[in-house]
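Reminder to self: tokens first, then the designed residues, so the page reads top to bottom the way the pipeline ran.
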């Protein structure tokens, strides 16, 4: 039996928790890209959920580009919110990027995040055509 090896590309955020937890911002294997849950940087500590979501999606687009992909390749997002009352504003930011693309998506309320000021976190999955 022959094993087919596919190249694996890891993309780092440069953040301290990558070494603590042993993870990467994103991993691309073949035509699949998995982007870890992404939060806004500390620059957005005093920002609302909409602004944090916008900042997250800018980061996501940078990671997509580094992997040779774009927003049109996104097939799924998972959005985690601390306060479900922020759903409309986060949905607005999400729609600004993905309205024409329409990836599958879930929106989930969580009790807490790593930093108390973080309001939203987004995981992203993309597949580029072979």
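Designed residues (130 positions):
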């Amino acid at each position: 039996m022959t094993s087919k090896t596919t190249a694996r590309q890891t993309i780092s955020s440069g953040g301290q928790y990558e070494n603590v937890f042993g993870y990467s911002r994103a991993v691309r294997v073949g035509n699949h890209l998995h982007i870890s849950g992404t939060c806004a940087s500390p620059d957005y500590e005093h920002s609302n959920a909409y602004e944090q979501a916008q900042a997250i999606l800018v980061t996501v687009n940078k990671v997509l580009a580094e992997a040779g992909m774009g927003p049109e390749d996104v097939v799924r997002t998972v959005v985690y919110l601390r306060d479900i009352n922020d759903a409309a504003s986060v949905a607005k930011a999400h729609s600004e990027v993905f309205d024409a693309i329409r990836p599958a998506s879930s929106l989930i309320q969580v009790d807490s995040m790593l930093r108390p000021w973080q309001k939203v976190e987004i995981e992203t999955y993309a597949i580029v055509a072979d």
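The mean pLDDT is 93.
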